[in-house]
Write a structure and sequence with these properties.
By secondary structure, this protein is mainly α. It has 6 helices and no strands. The protein folds into 3 domains: about 60 residues; about 60 residues; about 90 residues, no CATH class.
Length: about 220
């Protein structure tokens, strides 16, 4: 009887120990599962976080692409505008140079025409100084009556020769200017151009005698004017 009780007690104790071990094993297994799950969850979260980093970086860098495209477009537009401005400036410079060349050519043509006209006028004046004098007298308002006095005066003085020179006094030209360089007032060509001589002679007569007839009257009185 006592042996059976002791045996039962031992069995009970063994069962209690076994139950305790089972409980402990269960608790340890639960903790292990929880720990493993937490670790797995942490690893998974870290992997997700690492995977999300490139996406975040890409999103952060994404706005730079449109800005770069805008900068490139602006640079291209600026280059186009610069090229257009350079082309316009070149065209304007070429147009200005062309206009200046045309103006210079026109001025040269006008100068040549004037020189040719002057040469023809000089030839006519040399051949017919009286006609040149008639034309120039019109500027003073003198008509044929005054021309007759002028013709008498200068025929006596030089016979209307533009190279006539008085050997004793040095008076020169159609009006017999003394000295000759007085006529330079109307041009440096006073020794070769009858028109220059006539212009000076008419100016001198008007200032000194008023009219050719006044100069002729003085010449008649004293033999010179």
């Amino acid at each position: 009887m006592h042996r059976r009780r002791r045996r039962l007690r031992r069995v009970s104790v063994g069962l209690g120990i076994l139950a305790s071990i089972t409980v402990l094993a269960t608790l340890f297994t639960g903790w292990l599962v929880d720990s493993t799950g937490s670790a797995t969850t942490a690893v998974t979260a870290e992997r997700h976080q690492q995977a999300a980093l490139p996406e975040v970086g890409a999103k952060a860098q994404a706005p730079e692409r449109p800005s770069l495209e805008r900068d490139l477009a602006a640079a291209a537009e600026a280059q186009v505008q610069a090229e257009e401005a350079a082309a316009q400036a070149k065209a304007e410079a070429e147009a200005k140079a062309k206009a200046e060349a045309e103006a210079a050519a026109a001025a040269e043509a006008e100068r040549q025409a004037a020189a040719e006209a002057a040469a023809r006028s000089l030839e006519r004046a040399i051949d017919d100084p009286q006609s040149a004098a008639r034309t120039l007298m019109a500027d003073y308002g003198w008509g044929d009556d005054q021309f007759q006095c002028l013709d008498n005066l200068w025929t006596r003085e030089s016979n209307w020769r533009h190279t006539a020179e008085n050997p004793s006094s040095g008076a020169y030209g159609i009006p017999q200017s003394l000295p000759a360089d007085k006529m330079s007032r109307f041009g440096d060509d006073y020794r070769t151009n009858p028109v220059t001589q006539i212009e000076w002679g008419l100016w001198y007569i008007e200032g000194r005698y008023g009219t050719p007839c006044g100069a002729w009257a003085h010449s008649e009185d004293v033999g010179w004017y």
